[in-house]
Amino acid sequence: MRPFLRALAVTTCLVTAPLALSVATPSAAVAADYPEGRLPDTAKPSAYRLSLTIIPSKERFSGHTEIDVDLKTGVASLFMHGRDLTVTKAVAVQNGKAIEAVWTQVDPLGVARVDFKAPLQAGKVTLKFDYDAPFGDGPAGLYRVKVGDDWYAWTQFESIDARAAFPSFDEPGFKTPYSVSITTEPGLVVASNAPEKDSVKSGNLVTHNFIPTKPLPSYLVAMVVGPFAVAEGVAPPTPQRSWPLPIRIIATKPNKDKLNYALTETPSIVAHLESYFNQPFPYPKLDQIGSPIMPGAMENAGADIYGDTILLLDDGAPTSQRKTFGMVVAHELSHQWFGDYVTPAWWDDIWLNESFANWMGFRIGNEWRPELNIGVGGLAEGFSAMPTDAMKVGRPIHEKITKNGDIDSAFDGITYGKGGQVIAMIAAYLGDNNFREGVRLHMSRHPYGNATTEEFFGALADAAKDPRVLESMKSFINQQGVPVVDIVRKDGRLIGTQSRYSYYGSTLTPQSWIIPVCLREGSERNCTLMDKTTVDLGAAKPGAIIPNAGGTGYYRFSLTPSDWDALLATGATLPAAEGIAAIDSLWAQFEAGKLPAAELITAAKALADNPDSSVAIGAGERLTGLWGDGMVASETEAKYRGVIGGIYGPRLGAMGFNPANGAYKAEAAELQSRRRGLVSLLAGSAKDTSVRKTLLDAATAYLNGNTNALDQTYLGSGLSIYVQEGGLPAAKAMFERAVTSTQEGFRGRALGAVTAGAKLDTADWVLNTAMNDKRLRNSEKISLLGGLFYSRETRDTAFTWLKANYASFSAGAGIFSAGRIASLPGVYCDAAKADEIDALMRPKVIAAGRGELSFNRTLETMKTCSALKAAKSAEVNQAFIDAK
């Protein structure tokens, strides 16, 4: 799974009379007597037969589920999973005898108890259930969305939402074949994991029968139903696969003209992955499916589901969208092997599933289209996890999970960013061939089965024959924290000392790691496995030290002022990965209180001409955070904006800027990315009047019907400026355009524009009127509220609203977006505000049952920011005043 905005909806439930469940919390007496995490090992499913009637235009769906189960012992009752299912009949069939049962949901997250009217014996039994349930309105369980005049239905089952669609043993360790039948209205497209076997008329409806799947866990089962547009093709045979692989792109009807890009490009990504794993695609077909509200993408076996804007590109798609397509499709398709073919045994090991896929997404995406420079994004994402990992509050990558409510914490930046970077670091140190052989060995040992972290380590050890490297990897995944390596010159040598990085004013428990440190001096690169607190890193040579050569190391470094000056002097020629690493470490040293603020401006100037846009623009984007945190005083605003404009304005001037559709279509992708970044900095942070007017004029023409006036690359910026200049009337009109649009790319950018730079009157209207509009989706409500929090002028208004509405707002959100809701106040850089928020909101967060880790991280972020602000804000403001 590749989440972006996780807004999966989870419905809470109440135990009432058997066979008819509704929403609430189970009694304390019941709650003390059920498994909150793993189910007992009494029962093991061996096969599922799912028969569902799914008519998307209706509010509920119905189903008949049969599960073949092996009982370890005789039982009078079983625990299994189901959430908000109105079960009308439950029967166990054993030795030809039907035994009635009573179904009772005992936990809001979907644990159920099945009580049999006569005891079952050890051995084989078939459990049968008839039920119906409501469709979800967000991407969790079986959900539906109206697009235009038509209703469509999709599933999203990771992590624990298959139980909202059918009774199940909803754990990753239970892999079985699934036989799926879906009954619906004639003329609708129906898809599932396996190829369709046949369809038969059932009265006025049609039943679609699918061949049994390969063994799957419940979270990888998929179903979609609706009047979809479909494009069909094949991935040609490869050295690993002797047959053509059927491929379909499936999307809602308004996207019928956006299917070709994915259909054309998917086969190439499949071929790259088959080459890496040296195995054919593990399933008999591949459907790539778009959903308008999917907050990322999901690797259902043979039936991946993506957010529309990830999968569906038109001819004018900007470079950023093509990068996202390549990375996310490579990520999800790598899961077809690492995650689907070989599945984690329990959620403890999901880190490996996602960390590996994240690394593969950037790697294979880069192989697919090198000119898009996708690979460097993986390193940037790794460094972006470090601020979270450097807190007191947090978790290691590999964390023991004992409760269902804790599973969501495994799907965060630590798993994706840090985990992916640790994989990259170990792969780089071992050597690509050794690491790849370990991965292949792991695949071969567990075909269509389950595996643990230790089993993966065993395969790496057998392939690489270097136990020290595995110990290094374990030191990073089994403990929280970011190492920092302090490098000094002494007696002609480079001496490195490791410690645990901490923010200014924060004291953390000391830790140590086994760090693969690779340094570069000129063209010479030396690597050392740093297994002591202080080590000799080699001879010191004149010139710049690059302490994270290749940028793959998951560590920060600190240098003396003279060595920082020497490194920054190479800014215009520094390789992208090393430039990103340098930016992160430079800012980390400032945030630890050990580097003067003026050096941040020096770095932005030194790196602005780097040939890689991620480096050239990234240093400037970091400066903008000083304004958002309130470190830049209002009276220094003009100087701050002048510095941004002074650095980046001449560079955009030299490139030229025409926002018209396709104006730079023939230009290299990297130049397109650079121009986009420059425009964003100048229009937003610098408030450059010329750039803003250019975008405003283009947006006005676009909204008046000239869609060629504004390229998709600048659509979000142009619409935002249009609303900022037009005030509340423009915000209202933009909102109406957004919620009535069937084009997801426009809808998302238009809604983002409503609150970008909003004033108080717009904030009041959004919170009191727009948030109650039934056309607005849950994930969009979170985004609108987030936009109001981001602005200095409206965040207090947004916080007042959140305090009053937290319970109802979070109840409809779900286990993933709950964390984001809890973290919304984190934009405050104020310790006193953190204490106020803690007192006011902690009871609400606890009552919601999820999001507490994100909430605790939010409070700590506010406090560490406040400490740095108190110590450094005067220095920051003076640096902008003095800047030339």
Automatic annotation (TrEMBL):
Signal peptide as annotated in the record: 1-31
Q: Where is the ERAP1-like C-terminal domain?
A: 545-863
Q: What is its EC number?
A: 3.4.11.-
Q: Which CDD domains match?
A: M1_APN-Q_like
Against Gene3D superfamilies, the record matches this protein to: 1.25.50.20, 2.60.40.1910, Neutral Protease Domain 2, tricorn interacting facor f3 domain
Domain Peptidase M1 membrane alanine aminopeptidase positions: 261-474
Q: Which cofactor does it need?
A: Zn(2+)
Annotated InterPro entries:
Aminopeptidase_N-like_N, Aminopeptidase_N-like_N_sf, ERAP1-like_C_dom, M1_APN-typ, Peptidase_M1, Peptidase_M1_aminopeptidases, Peptidase_M1_dom, Peptidase_M4/M1_CTD_sf
For this UniProt record, the keywords arranged alphabetically read as follows: Aminopeptidase, Hydrolase, Metal-binding, Metalloprotease, Protease, Signal, Zinc
Q: Which reactions fall under this protein's catalytic activity?
A: Release of an N-terminal amino acid, Xaa-|-Yaa- from a peptide, amide or arylamide. Xaa is preferably Ala, but may be most amino acids including Pro (slow action). When a terminal hydrophobic residue is followed by a prolyl residue, the two may be released as an intact Xaa-Pro dipeptide
Cofactor binding, per record:
Binds 1 zinc ion per subunit.
Enzyme superclass (EC): hydrolase
For the Aminopeptidase N-like N-terminal domain, which residue ranges apply? 44-220
Give the family, as the similarity comment puts it: Belongs to the peptidase M1 family.
Q: What name does UniProt use for this protein? A: Aminopeptidase
